[in-house]
Amino acid sequence: MWILSENNYYIRDYGYQCFKKRNFRYMNMSFTFEKTESIKQEIIDLSRTECLAMIEARLCDNKKMTCHLNGCYNKEKPNGEFSWFTKIVYWNYECSFRKKLIIASKQISAVFNVNLNTCRPNDLFCKFHDSIVVWNESIIFNKPFFRIHYGTNYTRKNNLVYSLADRFLFQITTSKIENSYTVFSTTD
Fold it and tell me: What is the pTM of this model?
């Protein structure tokens, strides 16, 4: 006997959110040897393919990323040195990705509850001003039910189905035949 639950979501699983920035380090030494520096960042617009490549390789501009349970990052200040009476610009990339929950109740539902969001589950990605979120088609669940348990020692008596071994008891409210299977609806 299979115990099924109604699926209320078209998609409800994890994808990844990818970020990439270019850091510019401006280093200046004046005629009087006074040193000044500043750092500015530029957001890099990633494609779905670039994000998936970052996740797979765990590299940021060919540099190994530091990883933890929910993602990876590479955050370094650009190396550089001061030079007398010269303004020099050094730059590098900063990247990160992290797990992101993807939820939509229907195929036509917006994936994230953000104003003006037009991302749908079958798009497989969603762009934001500073990042992109990607997911695989394999996490889309387009079935009305999902299995939560399988058992073999169930007994039906009137409108009750129970298993002493699995310690389950269900009260049947309706029954119908679907694809040659008897499907019972039960109380919650």
Answer: 0.70
